[in-house]
Write a structure and sequence with these properties.
Helix content: over 70%
Order of helices and strands: HHHHHHH
Structural class: mainly alpha
Number of strands: 0
Distance between the termini: 83 Å
Number of helices: 7
Radius of gyration: 38 Å
Shape: rod-shaped
Largest sheet: none
Length: 279
């Protein structure tokens, strides 16, 4: 009887020991799994966070490069396109690495969604490189020519005054000096962009038309402006010199006016990149 009881007690102790061993093994396995999941989750979050931070820095760099490029800086266009390609590649890699990872997939999708319109703006700006850089060259040549044109117009004013031209005629010639300066200022305003760029472009067109009409009126007469055709030899010679310089500058100005709409679109794209770089 005693032997049977002892045997039963031994079996109970053995079962109890085995049970707690199993419990400890299961608990250990759960701990390992939880630790592994936590490490994996932290790794996924950390990797995605690092990629997103890099994209934020690159997007700000892209915005700065775009602002430089839209002013006609050819070197800035080269770095701009390189940064844009880097961001495109990083977005693709981010989606490939973390797009299906539950803990970060939503954030990755948000990053992709945010970049999509910015990427379109970057594409528009990159596509405008030829027009923007051409505009910059035209604007520079026009602005550099203004002082010479004004000097020639001053000669015209002196020649008209010394030859006895009516004061109203002399005033119109003197006004041309002012308009030439206004055109140079407005070219600068158009190239600078911003809210006043389009208005400056409209004013520039009016200035160019007005300037040309007065130059023609001084040579051929214009009753609507009370202009008489110049007859004095010195005044006509001075007008011819001013006209020749204006003809060259007018070609640059017409090119500027013709490409201004493309410039405005490029400026809008650059502004969109600046506005979206902190998102």
């Amino acid at each position: 009887m005693s032997t049977a009881a002892d045997t039963l007690a031994i079996k109970r102790r053995t079962f109890g020991t085995n049970f707690w061993v199993v419990v400890l093994v299961v608990a250990g396995a759960i701990l390992v799994l939880n630790t592994g999941y936590g490490t994996w989750k932290a790794s996924a979050l950390g990797g995605a966070s690092t990629s997103a931070s890099n994209l934020r820095v690159d997007s700000q760099r892209l915005a700065n490069q775009g602002s430089d490029a839209v002013r006609g800086n050819a070197a800035a266009f080269a770095t701009f396109k390189a940064t844009r390609a880097q961001i495109d590649g990083d977005i693709q890699q981010l989606n490939a690495s973390y797009g299906d990872t539950p803990v970060v997939s939503g954030a990755v999708a948000k990053v992709t969604e945010t970049w999509t319109p910015l990427g379109a703006s970057a594409q528009r700006l990159a596509d405008s490189e030829a027009a923007v850089t051409a505009f910059a060259g035209q604007a520079q040549r026009f602005s550099q020519g203004v002082p010479q044109l004004q000097a020639l117009l001053d000669e015209l004013v002196r020649a008209m005054s010394s030859s006895g031209s009516p004061s109203s005629q002399v005033y119109m010639a003197l006004r041309q000096v002012v308009i030439a300066g206004d055109m140079a200022r407005r070219v600068t305003e158009v190239q600078a962009g911003g809210a006043g760029a389009a208005i400056a472009g409209q004013g520039l067109r009016r200035n160019a038309e007005d300037f040309q009409q007065v130059m023609t009126g001084l040579r051929e007469g214009d009753p609507s402006r009370e202009l008489q055709a110049l007859t004095n030899g010195n005044a006509l010679a001075a007008l011819t010199r001013a006209d020749e310089t204006w003809a060259q500058m007018r070609a640059e100005l017409e090119a500027i006016l013709g490409s201004s709409e493309q410039l405005f679109q490029a400026q809008a794209a650059a502004s969109a990149l600046v506005a979206g770089s902190d998102q």
